[in-house]
């Protein structure tokens, strides 16, 4: 039986396996110089079964380790060695060992031992030893090096055990053609590719859910002109073409002196004028002349280079430039149109307008922009136990949290919101509410009542007014989800548990709102982070854990969970700054492995 292995390095790892006595080490000591000669830099990891030592008693490093140092790193200008005391019951973990290799210093790692791991290997087989084949129960064998008369299946590359050149050819080819596996994100956001995949009776994947949701959404096409100062997180309806160059004139990026680079040899230069921002020098600068110039002032004709004031000395209307050997032609000159050229598309339709975009539009002279109308989102809660915050909390009840998280997230996405309050859990009231809400809103969102409980009237109400699907999404939290249409409005029935509401909103409602609002080119962000402790999930479902990411002492992004993960515990969202997303083909992430996170940044 082979044990799952994933290569953590950006270079290939190739194993050599054989029964003892086959000549593995002899072959490797011949192969290594042969590969070195071909310019291939090698690392070797060798498994040892016994308590070996690489140091000598009496040496300082040996004595320090024996004195109790868990790690000793001994280094000279020739080599360094790290010795780690790591007594474990089981075999050492190859993935952990591989992470110790400096992948920028070698081209391939050859591994001797670790026979049971599912890593690509060359099997060595010597017929005279009468040992069984390894490849018959290990599908990771890519080639077999054996004797002349040994039978080898057609699917395996056959190598001559005594021909080091031939084996080196194979390793070289392997190294040259190896490609790092493509990064697979935990959620696929390819709307078209997934939409028509069949639904399984056990539920659909998050990716399928997203594409099915997006399949129900048509972008708003009404537009309006809005003053720049009133635009908050809205979507541009048309391309904006610049009518001017930005900057309008070629100008200085420094307070200093403008001159022609070719005049450098005639220094000191004669100062003929001073140019302040908003002004210009009306003449053409001649050879041997300079102007005193301020940041943002127009560079005179005839000048092409600026020297900063602190690198020049001025006296008697002349300037001596210092460190002339470092002056580069064109330095500190901002060319007309270098930010945006006249006639260029400055922003494209479908772009979300944040601070930078608004600044850019202002810099082009626009004071109003054509925008898509904001989506209108109506939100209500259901459930006899759900009470209005501010009222007295009745026995057996809870305060309504979901309406507030949904309203806040919808507003953050630039929607206009309608708060419909808490709606009584009965079929008639819910039917009336839904029918009315759909006349006012592009999206109607409820929470609670979409699972299999007896009092879940929302399903009946929906059947009365629209056309809705109830899906079980293979994810946690947020398994039940209702999506449908009430006339032209989109309906989302989110599950009742408060964390499930927020996670479902992020994964399904967010892309729908963005598409409806006319935003294009949006994709959820996945950032790789190092899991500081082991993370558990179950294959067959996508797990969204609440996490806290931060930059570790190693300069890399690390993540930990917030602790207890109950889908009713809103505090876990408050304490988190990201979701940790474990893909549906993964059951555990060992500590130290990479995992994808989705920072909350643009939503909470
Ligand atoms: N037999 C089964 N039971 C449940 C299943 C299942 O598959 N089979 N799924 C569980 C999952 S997962 C979830 S999530 C919930 C979803 O159920 P509902 O959408 O019907 O939600 P409710 O039962 O109405 O409420 C669940 C939970 O959330 C609280 N809640 C409801 N609304 C609010 C609100 N506005 N603010 C704060 N908290 C709210 C409610 O009191 C419940 O505790 O079903 C599981 N059960
Ligand atoms: O959606 Mo539920 O909150 O997974 O438990």
Provide structural commentary.
It is a single chain. This protein is α/β, with parallel strands linked by helices. The protein has five domains: 122 residues, Rossmann fold (3-Layer(aba) Sandwich), CATH 3.40.50.300; 157 residues, 3-Layer(aba) Sandwich (Molybdenum Cofactor Biosythetic Enzyme, Chain A), CATH 3.40.980; 46 residues, Alpha-Beta Complex (Molybdopterin biosynthesis moea protein, domain 2), CATH 3.90.105; 84 residues, Beta Complex (Molybdopterin biosynthesis moeA protein, domain 3); 73 residues, MoeA, C-terminal, domain IV (Beta-clip, Beta Barrel). It has twelve helices and 36 strands. The strands form ten sheets. It has a six-stranded parallel β-sheet with strand order 2-5-1-6-7-8, covered by helices on one side. A six-stranded mixed β-sheet has the order 15-12-14-13-17-16, with no helix packed on it. It has a six-stranded mixed β-sheet with strand order 24-21-25-29-28-26, sandwiched between helices. The protein is flat, with a radius of gyration of 34 Å. The site of molybdate ion has 8 residues, from loops. The site of ligand LQZAQKY5 has 26 residues, from helix 8 and helix 11. Belongs to the MoeA family. Keywords: Magnesium, Metal-binding, Molybdenum, Molybdenum cofactor biosynthesis, Transferase. It catalyses: adenylyl-molybdopterin + molybdate = Mo-molybdopterin + AMP + H(+). Its EC number is 2.10.1.1.
């Amino acid at each position: 039986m082979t044990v799952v292995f994933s290569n953590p390095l950006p270079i290939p790892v190739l194993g050599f396996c054989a029964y003892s006595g086959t000549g593995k080490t002899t072959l490797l000591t011949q192969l290594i110089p042969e590969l070195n000669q071909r310019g291939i830099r090698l690392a070797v990891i060798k498994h040892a079964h016994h308590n070996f030592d690489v140091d000598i008693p009496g040496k300082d490093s040996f004595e320090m380790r024996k004195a109790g140092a868990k790690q000793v790193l001994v280094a000279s200008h020739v080599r360094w060695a790290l010795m780690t005391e790591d007594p474990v019951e089981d075999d050492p973990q190859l993935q952990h060992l591989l992470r110790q290799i400096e992948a920028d210093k070698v081209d391939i790692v050859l591994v001797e031992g670790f026979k049971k791991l599912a890593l690509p290997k060359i099997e060595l087989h010597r017929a005279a030893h009468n040992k069984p084949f390894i490849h018959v129960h290990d599908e990771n064998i890519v080639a077999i090096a054996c004797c002349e008369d040994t039978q080898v299946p057609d699917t395996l590359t056959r190598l001559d055990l005594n021909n080091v050149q031939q084996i080196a050819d194979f390793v070289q080819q392997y190294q040259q053609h190896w490609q790092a596996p493509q990064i697979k994100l935990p959620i696929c956001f390819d709307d078209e590719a997934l939409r028509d995949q069949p639904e399984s009776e056990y539920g659909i994947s998050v990716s399928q859910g997203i594409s099915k949701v997006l399949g129900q959404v048509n972008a708003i096409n009404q537009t309006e002109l809005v003053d720049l100062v009133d635009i908050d997180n809205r979507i541009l309806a048309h391309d904006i073409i610049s009518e001017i160059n930005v900057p309008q004139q070629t100008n200085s990026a420094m307070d200093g002196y403008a001159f022609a680079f070719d005049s450098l040899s005639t220094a000191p230069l004669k100062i003929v004028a001073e140019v302040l921002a908003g002004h210009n020098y009306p003449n053409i600068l001649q050879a041997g002349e300079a102007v005193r110039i301020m940041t943002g002032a127009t560079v005179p004709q005839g000048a092409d280079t600026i020297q900063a004031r602190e690198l020049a000395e001025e006296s008697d209307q002349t300037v001596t430039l210092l460190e002339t050997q470092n002056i580069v032609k064109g330095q500190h000159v901002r060319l007309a149109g270098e930010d945006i050229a006249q006639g260029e598309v400055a922003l494209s339709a479908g772009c979300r307008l944040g601070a930078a975009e608004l600044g850019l539009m202002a810099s082009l002279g626009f004071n109003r922009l054509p925008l898509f109308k904001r989506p209108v989102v109506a939100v209500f809660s259901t459930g006899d136990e759900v009470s209005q915050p501010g009222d007295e909390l009745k026995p057996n009840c809870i305060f309504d949290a979901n309406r507030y998280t949904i309203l806040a997230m919808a507003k953050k996405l630039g929607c206009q919101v309608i708060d419909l309050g808490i709606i009584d859990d009965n079929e008639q009231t819910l039917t009336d509410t839904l029918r009315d809400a759909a006349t006012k809103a592009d999206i109607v969102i409820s929470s609670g009542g979409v699972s299999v409980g007896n009092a879940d009237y929302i399903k009946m109400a929906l059947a009365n007014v629209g056309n809705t699907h109830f899906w079980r999404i293979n994810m946690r939290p947020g398994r039940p989800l209702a999506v449908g249409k009430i006339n032209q409005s989109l309906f989302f029935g989110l599950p009742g548990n408060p964390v499930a509401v927020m996670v479902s909103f992020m994964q399904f409602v967010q892309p729908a709102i963005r598409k409806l609002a006319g935003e294009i080119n949006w994709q959820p962000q996945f950032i790789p982070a190092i899991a500081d402790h082991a993370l558990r999930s179950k294959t067959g479902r996508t797990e969204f854990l609440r996490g806290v990411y931060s930059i570790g002492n190693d300069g890399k992004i690390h993540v930990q969970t917030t602790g207890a993960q109950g889908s009713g515990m809103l505090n876990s969202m408050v304490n988190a700054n990201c979701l940790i997303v474990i893909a549906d083909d993964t059951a555990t992430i060992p500590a130290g492995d990479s995992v994808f996170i989705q920072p909350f940044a643009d939503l909470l």
